[in-house]
Write a structure and sequence with these properties.
Blueprint (H helix, E strand, L loop, with lengths): L1 H7 L5 E7 L1 H5 L1 H16 L2 E7 L13 H11 L4 E6 L14 E2 L4 H4 L14 H13 L3 E6 L5 H6 L5 E3 L8 H8 L3 E7 L1 H8 L4 E2 L3 E4 L8 E5 L5 E6 L7 H5 L5 E3 L4 E3 L1
Parallel strand pairs: 1-2, 3-5, 4-6, 7-10
Antiparallel strand pairs: 5-6, 7-9, 8-12, 10-11, 11-13
Helix pairs in contact: 4-6, 4-8
Length: 265
């Protein structure tokens, strides 16, 4: 933090240290308090520098890396753009050239990521592309760029360097942005083709369409929804306790998650 201060002090910008834990985003009440605190700091010209609270963070609930923490802040706090700095110029193609723009981060785009990791962080390009995809799905543009060079951050903001990953044009409420990004995922639910179509048409998830649940969950817990091939395409909040698949199948028209509590990814 002292190092950051030496760079911000000439511009009379004050800093605050923000030590975050996964539960600060997973718990809705704590998340809203965190959001209010950040907004109050920004209002008073203070820039919070966020990092994980490694001293007390639960090992099983740690952030995967700072790419995830940055994305949770960007999605949860209504950012229009997120910047991922790295040690390479951007996303590189097979010839080692920078891909200037990725309209949609699909399997082909993810295939461009090298499996080696950055020399200065936990996550590599795969991590950055995965979290850039989540940001894009929530309506946020992402730029992956090199931290080396003159005015690299300013150039990234203007889209003059690195790889631009375009935001998808869809409206997602603040609550559902939090549901899709900050929540702790309890279970994975696989559903049949009919249920997939129903959810894509903004219908509720009924028990009759479920083919597999990997573990039980309680009312209010968040789970991923996948098709029968295992491809996750949505997250939802459980409307009821679910412990036994056979038991819920016996009840007709039983809703596991309401349409308003399902977010398509």
């Amino acid at each position: 933090l002292r190092t950051y201060s030496t760079y911000f002090k000439p511009f009379n910008i004050a800093l605050a240290q923000s030590l975050c834990e996964r539960q600060h985003f997973a718990n809705r009440a704590q998340f809203l308090q965190l959001k209010d605190t950040y907004q109050e700091l920004w209002k008073n010209g203070v820039i919070p520098v966020a990092n994980e609270n490694d001293v007390v963070s639960n090992k099983e609930l740690k952030f995967s890396d700072n790419d995830e923490l940055a994305t949770l802040i960007a999605v949860g706090f209504g950012a229009e753009q997120i910047l991922f700095s790295t040690s390479v110029p951007g996303v590189l193609d097979a010839e080692g050239q920078v891909v200037p723009e990725i309209p949609v981060i699909d399997k082909d785009a993810l295939g461009l990521a090298r499996r080696d990791k950055s020399t200065v962080g936990l996550g590599g390009m795969t991590s950055k592309l995965n979290f850039a995809r989540l940001a894009n799905q929530m309506g946020i543009q992402a730029v992956i760029f090199s931290m080396h060079g003159t005015d690299s951050i300013l150039k990234a903001v203007r889209g003059e360097t690195g790889t631009i990953c375009r935001a998808q044009s869809k409206r997602v409420s603040s609550r559902n942005k939090w549901l899709a990004s900050g929540s702790l995922i309890k279970a994975l639910v696989k559903i049949d083709e009919g249920a997939v179509i129903a959810i894509q048409n903004r219908k509720s998830l009924l028990a009759v369409g479920i083919v597999e649940i990997n573990q039980s969950m309680e009312t209010g817990e968040v789970f991923q929804i996948a098709n029968e091939s295992g491809e996750v395409f949505a997250v939802a909040k459980a409307k009821i306790d679910v412990s036994d698949l056979e038991a819920i199948h016996k009840k007709k028209n039983l809703a596991i998650a309401h349409a308003d509590d399902i977010v398509l990814l």
